[in-house]
Amino acid sequence: MPRPIQATIDIQALRHNLSQIKAAAPDALVWGVVKANAYGHGIERIFEGLRAADGIALLDLAEAERVRQLGWRGPILLLEGVFETRDLELCSRLNLWHVVHCEAQIDMLAVHKTHQPHRVFLKMNTGMNRLGFAPQAFRAAWTRLNALPQVDEISLMSHFSDADGDKGIAAAMALFHQHTHDLSGERSLCNSAATLRHAKDLAVRADWVRPGIALYGSSPDFPLHSAHDWGLKPVMSLNAGIIGVQHLQAGDAVGYGSSFVADRPMRIGVVACGYADGYPRSAATGTPVCVDGQASRTVGRVSMDMITVDITDVPHADLGSEVTLWGLPQKTMPKVHASVGVPIDAVAQAAGTVGYELMCALAARVPVVVKD
To answer: Domain ends where: 187, 216, 245?
Structure first.
Protein backbone atom coordinates (compact mmCIF):
# COMPACT_ATOMS: atom_id res chain seq x y z
CA MET A 1 0.00 0.00 0.00
CA PRO A 2 1.14 3.61 -0.47
CA ARG A 3 2.83 5.43 2.39
CA PRO A 4 0.00 6.75 4.60
CA ILE A 5 0.20 10.48 3.99
CA GLN A 6 -2.15 12.71 2.02
CA ALA A 7 -2.96 16.35 1.43
CA THR A 8 -6.59 17.24 0.75
CA ILE A 9 -7.70 20.35 -1.15
CA ASP A 10 -11.26 21.40 -0.30
CA ILE A 11 -12.84 23.39 -3.13
CA GLN A 12 -16.00 24.15 -1.16
CA ALA A 13 -13.83 25.78 1.52
CA LEU A 14 -12.20 27.94 -1.14
CA ARG A 15 -15.59 29.05 -2.45
CA HIS A 16 -16.66 29.83 1.10
CA ASN A 17 -13.54 31.94 1.74
CA LEU A 18 -14.09 33.86 -1.47
CA SER A 19 -17.63 34.65 -0.37
CA GLN A 20 -16.33 35.87 3.02
CA ILE A 21 -13.91 38.19 1.25
CA LYS A 22 -16.65 39.56 -0.97
CA ALA A 23 -18.76 40.25 2.10
CA ALA A 24 -15.84 42.11 3.71
CA ALA A 25 -15.39 44.32 0.64
CA PRO A 26 -18.92 44.99 -0.64
CA ASP A 27 -19.16 46.13 -4.26
CA ALA A 28 -15.42 45.75 -4.89
CA LEU A 29 -14.12 43.49 -7.62
CA VAL A 30 -11.93 40.63 -6.41
CA TRP A 31 -8.65 39.39 -7.79
CA GLY A 32 -8.11 35.75 -6.89
CA VAL A 33 -4.37 35.60 -6.28
CA VAL A 34 -2.81 32.32 -7.45
CA LYS A 35 0.90 33.15 -7.39
CA ALA A 36 3.34 30.44 -6.25
CA ASN A 37 1.15 27.79 -7.88
CA ALA A 38 -1.87 28.98 -5.88
CA TYR A 39 0.11 29.18 -2.64
CA GLY A 40 1.17 25.56 -3.03
CA HIS A 41 -2.34 24.25 -3.63
CA GLY A 42 -1.95 23.85 -7.40
CA ILE A 43 -3.58 26.17 -9.92
CA GLU A 44 -5.28 23.33 -11.76
CA ARG A 45 -6.61 21.87 -8.51
CA ILE A 46 -8.20 25.06 -7.18
CA PHE A 47 -9.31 26.71 -10.40
CA GLU A 48 -12.97 25.69 -10.15
CA GLY A 49 -13.15 27.23 -6.69
CA LEU A 50 -12.24 30.65 -8.08
CA ARG A 51 -14.82 30.80 -10.87
CA ALA A 52 -16.68 33.51 -8.91
CA ALA A 53 -13.64 35.79 -8.76
CA ASP A 54 -13.59 38.80 -11.08
CA GLY A 55 -9.98 38.34 -12.11
CA ILE A 56 -6.95 36.13 -11.53
CA ALA A 57 -3.68 37.66 -10.31
CA LEU A 58 -0.34 35.89 -10.55
CA LEU A 59 3.34 36.41 -11.18
CA ASP A 60 4.63 34.84 -14.35
CA LEU A 61 3.66 34.15 -17.91
CA ALA A 62 3.72 30.37 -17.55
CA GLU A 63 1.07 30.61 -14.82
CA ALA A 64 -0.97 32.95 -17.01
CA GLU A 65 -0.84 30.46 -19.88
CA ARG A 66 -2.03 27.69 -17.57
CA VAL A 67 -4.98 29.77 -16.42
CA ARG A 68 -5.99 30.59 -19.99
CA GLN A 69 -5.68 26.90 -20.93
CA LEU A 70 -8.09 26.08 -18.10
CA GLY A 71 -10.67 28.22 -19.85
CA TRP A 72 -10.46 31.50 -17.93
CA ARG A 73 -11.59 34.34 -20.19
CA GLY A 74 -11.66 37.13 -17.62
CA PRO A 75 -8.88 39.52 -16.59
CA ILE A 76 -5.46 38.17 -15.62
CA LEU A 77 -3.04 40.52 -13.89
CA LEU A 78 0.74 40.05 -13.78
CA LEU A 79 1.58 41.38 -10.31
CA GLU A 80 5.25 42.06 -11.08
CA GLY A 81 4.66 43.11 -14.65
CA VAL A 82 6.94 42.01 -17.48
CA PHE A 83 10.65 41.28 -17.22
CA GLU A 84 11.71 41.91 -20.82
CA THR A 85 10.23 43.51 -23.92
CA ARG A 86 9.27 40.27 -25.66
CA ASP A 87 7.05 39.36 -22.70
CA LEU A 88 4.67 42.03 -23.99
CA GLU A 89 4.01 39.93 -27.09
CA LEU A 90 2.51 37.20 -24.93
CA CYS A 91 0.60 39.82 -22.93
CA SER A 92 -0.96 40.93 -26.21
CA ARG A 93 -1.73 37.37 -27.34
CA LEU A 94 -3.23 36.27 -24.00
CA ASN A 95 -4.85 39.64 -23.25
CA LEU A 96 -3.00 40.04 -19.95
CA TRP A 97 -3.12 43.12 -17.77
CA HIS A 98 0.18 43.94 -16.11
CA VAL A 99 1.71 46.06 -13.39
CA VAL A 100 4.14 48.83 -14.27
CA HIS A 101 6.42 49.59 -11.34
CA CYS A 102 9.56 51.12 -12.90
CA GLU A 103 10.74 53.28 -15.80
CA ALA A 104 12.26 50.29 -17.61
CA GLN A 105 8.80 48.77 -18.02
CA ILE A 106 7.52 52.00 -19.56
CA ASP A 107 10.51 51.91 -21.93
CA MET A 108 9.50 48.38 -22.97
CA LEU A 109 5.95 49.49 -23.72
CA ALA A 110 7.18 52.44 -25.73
CA VAL A 111 8.92 50.18 -28.27
CA HIS A 112 6.32 47.40 -28.26
CA LYS A 113 4.39 46.97 -31.52
CA THR A 114 0.79 45.99 -30.86
CA HIS A 115 -2.60 46.43 -32.46
CA GLN A 116 -4.34 46.10 -29.08
CA PRO A 117 -3.40 48.70 -26.41
CA HIS A 118 -2.51 47.28 -22.99
CA ARG A 119 -4.36 47.68 -19.69
CA VAL A 120 -1.75 48.51 -17.05
CA PHE A 121 -1.71 48.95 -13.28
CA LEU A 122 0.70 51.70 -12.28
CA LYS A 123 2.16 50.94 -8.86
CA MET A 124 3.13 53.42 -6.16
CA ASN A 125 5.58 52.62 -3.37
CA THR A 126 3.80 53.89 -0.24
CA GLY A 127 6.27 52.46 2.27
CA MET A 128 6.78 48.77 1.48
CA ASN A 129 9.94 49.68 -0.47
CA ARG A 130 9.76 46.69 -2.75
CA LEU A 131 8.22 47.57 -6.11
CA GLY A 132 6.66 50.82 -7.26
CA PHE A 133 7.36 54.41 -8.17
CA ALA A 134 8.18 56.87 -5.42
CA PRO A 135 5.12 59.04 -4.72
CA GLN A 136 6.90 62.13 -6.08
CA ALA A 137 7.63 60.32 -9.38
CA PHE A 138 4.20 58.74 -9.77
CA ARG A 139 2.49 61.54 -11.68
CA ALA A 140 5.28 61.77 -14.23
CA ALA A 141 5.07 58.02 -14.78
CA TRP A 142 1.30 58.26 -15.24
CA THR A 143 1.70 61.13 -17.71
CA ARG A 144 4.27 59.22 -19.73
CA LEU A 145 2.11 56.08 -19.85
CA ASN A 146 -0.96 58.08 -20.76
CA ALA A 147 0.83 59.47 -23.81
CA LEU A 148 1.72 56.04 -25.23
CA PRO A 149 -0.51 54.59 -27.97
CA GLN A 150 0.45 51.16 -26.66
CA VAL A 151 -1.44 51.86 -23.40
CA ASP A 152 -5.19 51.85 -22.97
CA GLU A 153 -6.56 52.27 -19.44
CA ILE A 154 -4.25 53.00 -16.52
CA SER A 155 -5.29 51.72 -13.11
CA LEU A 156 -3.58 52.86 -9.92
CA MET A 157 -2.33 50.54 -7.21
CA SER A 158 -0.17 50.17 -4.13
CA HIS A 159 0.53 47.52 -1.49
CA PHE A 160 0.19 47.98 2.27
CA SER A 161 3.17 46.98 4.39
CA ASP A 162 1.38 47.14 7.75
CA ALA A 163 -2.29 46.31 7.19
CA ASP A 164 -1.94 43.36 9.58
CA GLY A 165 -0.49 45.33 12.51
CA ASP A 166 -0.80 48.30 14.80
CA LYS A 167 0.86 50.75 12.41
CA GLY A 168 -2.05 50.27 10.06
CA ILE A 169 -2.70 51.85 6.68
CA ALA A 170 -3.50 55.50 7.43
CA ALA A 171 -0.12 56.91 6.41
CA ALA A 172 0.03 54.87 3.21
CA MET A 173 -3.54 55.84 2.33
CA ALA A 174 -2.79 59.53 2.85
CA LEU A 175 0.29 59.32 0.66
CA PHE A 176 -1.55 57.49 -2.09
CA HIS A 177 -4.46 59.93 -2.05
CA GLN A 178 -2.14 62.95 -2.06
CA HIS A 179 -0.52 61.90 -5.31
CA THR A 180 -3.49 60.31 -7.12
CA HIS A 181 -6.62 62.21 -6.08
CA ASP A 182 -7.01 63.95 -9.44
CA LEU A 183 -5.80 61.10 -11.67
CA SER A 184 -8.29 58.96 -13.54
CA GLY A 185 -8.35 55.17 -13.37
CA GLU A 186 -9.53 52.35 -11.15
CA ARG A 187 -7.77 51.75 -7.84
CA SER A 188 -6.47 48.57 -6.18
CA LEU A 189 -4.92 48.66 -2.71
CA CYS A 190 -6.06 45.85 -0.41
CA ASN A 191 -4.26 42.61 0.29
CA SER A 192 -5.89 39.99 2.55
CA ALA A 193 -5.24 41.86 5.79
CA ALA A 194 -6.50 45.19 4.48
CA THR A 195 -9.55 43.54 2.94
CA LEU A 196 -10.62 41.84 6.16
CA ARG A 197 -9.63 44.63 8.56
CA HIS A 198 -10.22 47.88 6.70
CA ALA A 199 -12.24 47.38 3.51
CA LYS A 200 -15.56 48.55 4.97
CA ASP A 201 -14.10 51.98 4.16
CA LEU A 202 -14.97 52.74 0.53
CA ALA A 203 -11.71 54.61 -0.10
CA VAL A 204 -9.69 51.66 1.17
CA ARG A 205 -11.44 48.87 -0.70
CA ALA A 206 -11.47 51.02 -3.86
CA ASP A 207 -12.34 49.20 -7.09
CA TRP A 208 -10.36 45.95 -6.75
CA VAL A 209 -9.14 43.96 -3.74
CA ARG A 210 -6.31 41.41 -4.01
CA PRO A 211 -6.76 38.66 -1.39
CA GLY A 212 -4.19 35.91 -1.31
CA ILE A 213 -3.65 33.98 1.90
CA ALA A 214 -7.20 34.51 3.16
CA LEU A 215 -8.58 32.68 0.13
CA TYR A 216 -6.76 29.58 1.29
CA GLY A 217 -8.02 29.73 4.87
CA SER A 218 -5.12 31.27 6.77
CA SER A 219 -5.43 34.41 8.88
CA PRO A 220 -3.42 37.38 7.59
CA ASP A 221 -3.04 38.84 11.09
CA PHE A 222 -2.56 35.75 13.27
CA PRO A 223 -2.37 35.55 16.27
CA LEU A 224 -4.42 38.72 16.74
CA HIS A 225 -7.20 37.02 14.79
CA SER A 226 -7.50 33.37 13.87
CA ALA A 227 -8.90 32.07 10.62
CA HIS A 228 -11.99 31.09 12.61
CA ASP A 229 -12.37 34.70 13.79
CA TRP A 230 -12.53 35.79 10.15
CA GLY A 231 -14.95 33.00 9.22
CA LEU A 232 -12.37 31.28 7.00
CA LYS A 233 -12.07 27.55 6.38
CA PRO A 234 -8.86 25.62 5.65
CA VAL A 235 -8.52 24.71 2.00
CA MET A 236 -5.48 22.46 2.51
CA SER A 237 -5.37 19.67 5.08
CA LEU A 238 -2.32 17.48 5.67
CA ASN A 239 -2.94 14.10 7.28
CA ALA A 240 -0.75 11.07 7.85
CA GLY A 241 -0.97 7.72 9.58
CA ILE A 242 0.71 6.31 12.65
CA ILE A 243 3.19 3.63 11.50
CA GLY A 244 4.71 2.75 14.87
CA VAL A 245 4.06 2.99 18.60
CA GLN A 246 6.67 3.28 21.35
CA HIS A 247 6.15 2.88 25.11
CA LEU A 248 8.38 5.15 27.17
CA GLN A 249 9.32 5.24 30.81
CA ALA A 250 10.32 8.37 32.70
CA GLY A 251 13.80 9.36 31.54
CA ASP A 252 13.49 7.88 28.03
CA ALA A 253 14.33 10.24 25.17
CA VAL A 254 12.77 10.65 21.74
CA GLY A 255 14.44 11.45 18.41
CA TYR A 256 17.70 12.97 17.26
CA GLY A 257 19.65 14.80 19.92
CA SER A 258 17.42 13.37 22.67
CA SER A 259 15.83 16.81 22.86
CA PHE A 260 12.66 15.44 24.48
CA VAL A 261 12.85 13.36 27.65
CA ALA A 262 9.75 11.77 29.12
CA ASP A 263 8.91 12.78 32.69
CA ARG A 264 6.35 9.96 33.06
CA PRO A 265 5.28 6.77 31.29
CA MET A 266 4.12 7.72 27.79
CA ARG A 267 2.89 6.28 24.52
CA ILE A 268 4.44 7.81 21.42
CA GLY A 269 3.02 7.53 17.92
CA VAL A 270 5.43 7.59 14.98
CA VAL A 271 3.83 9.42 12.04
CA ALA A 272 4.60 9.03 8.33
CA CYS A 273 5.43 12.68 7.69
CA GLY A 274 8.64 14.67 7.95
CA TYR A 275 10.45 17.68 6.62
CA ALA A 276 10.88 15.97 3.23
CA ASP A 277 7.08 16.16 2.98
CA GLY A 278 7.03 19.87 3.75
CA TYR A 279 6.43 19.72 7.50
CA PRO A 280 8.73 22.29 9.12
CA ARG A 281 11.84 20.85 10.77
CA SER A 282 11.83 23.86 13.10
CA ALA A 283 8.52 22.79 14.68
CA ALA A 284 9.29 22.38 18.37
CA THR A 285 7.94 19.93 20.92
CA GLY A 286 4.37 20.97 21.65
CA THR A 287 3.37 21.84 18.09
CA PRO A 288 -0.36 21.02 17.88
CA VAL A 289 -1.68 17.96 16.05
CA CYS A 290 -4.90 15.95 16.15
CA VAL A 291 -4.87 12.18 16.57
CA ASP A 292 -8.09 10.56 15.41
CA GLY A 293 -9.69 13.98 15.91
CA GLN A 294 -8.37 14.47 19.45
CA ALA A 295 -5.98 17.33 20.21
CA SER A 296 -2.40 16.38 21.00
CA ARG A 297 1.18 17.56 20.34
CA THR A 298 4.48 16.66 18.74
CA VAL A 299 7.44 15.54 20.85
CA GLY A 300 11.11 15.62 19.89
CA ARG A 301 12.69 16.73 16.63
CA VAL A 302 11.08 16.42 13.23
CA SER A 303 12.97 13.91 11.06
CA MET A 304 13.15 13.69 7.28
CA ASP A 305 10.34 11.13 7.04
CA MET A 306 8.82 10.89 10.51
CA ILE A 307 7.30 12.91 13.33
CA THR A 308 6.64 11.62 16.83
CA VAL A 309 3.45 12.61 18.66
CA ASP A 310 2.14 12.10 22.16
CA ILE A 311 -0.70 9.56 22.24
CA THR A 312 -0.59 8.91 25.98
CA ASP A 313 -3.99 10.49 26.49
CA VAL A 314 -5.46 9.15 23.24
CA PRO A 315 -6.11 5.56 24.37
CA HIS A 316 -7.78 4.46 21.12
CA ALA A 317 -4.81 5.59 18.98
CA ASP A 318 -2.78 2.82 17.38
CA LEU A 319 -1.22 1.76 14.08
CA GLY A 320 -3.18 3.31 11.25
CA SER A 321 -4.67 6.13 13.31
CA GLU A 322 -5.02 9.38 11.40
CA VAL A 323 -2.87 12.31 12.53
CA THR A 324 -3.87 15.76 11.31
CA LEU A 325 -0.77 17.90 10.87
CA TRP A 326 -2.78 20.91 9.75
CA GLY A 327 -6.30 21.49 8.54
CA LEU A 328 -9.11 19.03 9.25
CA PRO A 329 -9.33 15.27 9.84
CA GLN A 330 -10.46 13.45 6.72
CA LYS A 331 -11.70 10.19 8.25
CA THR A 332 -14.97 9.83 10.14
CA MET A 333 -13.98 8.57 13.55
CA PRO A 334 -16.41 7.01 16.05
CA LYS A 335 -17.05 9.05 19.18
CA VAL A 336 -14.85 11.87 17.87
CA HIS A 337 -15.93 15.31 16.67
CA ALA A 338 -14.80 15.33 13.04
CA SER A 339 -14.71 19.14 13.03
CA VAL A 340 -11.69 19.21 15.33
CA GLY A 341 -8.71 20.46 13.40
CA VAL A 342 -5.29 22.08 13.56
CA PRO A 343 -5.00 25.68 12.31
CA ILE A 344 -2.07 25.96 9.93
CA ASP A 345 -1.23 29.31 11.55
CA ALA A 346 -0.75 27.61 14.95
CA VAL A 347 1.65 25.10 13.40
CA ALA A 348 3.52 27.90 11.66
CA GLN A 349 3.77 29.90 14.87
CA ALA A 350 5.28 26.91 16.69
CA ALA A 351 7.81 26.60 13.86
CA GLY A 352 8.70 30.29 13.85
CA THR A 353 7.24 30.94 10.42
CA VAL A 354 3.92 31.77 8.72
CA GLY A 355 1.16 29.70 7.18
CA TYR A 356 2.12 30.93 3.71
CA GLU A 357 5.44 29.07 3.91
CA LEU A 358 3.89 25.79 5.02
CA MET A 359 1.38 25.83 2.15
CA CYS A 360 4.06 26.61 -0.41
CA ALA A 361 6.44 23.99 1.01
CA LEU A 362 4.18 20.97 0.53
CA ALA A 363 6.46 18.45 -1.16
CA ALA A 364 5.78 16.92 -4.56
CA ARG A 365 5.98 13.42 -3.08
CA VAL A 366 2.83 13.98 -1.00
CA PRO A 367 -0.28 12.62 -2.75
CA VAL A 368 -3.00 15.24 -3.15
CA VAL A 369 -6.75 14.60 -3.31
CA VAL A 370 -9.20 17.29 -4.42
CA LYS A 371 -12.55 17.33 -2.65
CA ASP A 372 -15.52 19.32 -3.98
So the answer is: 216
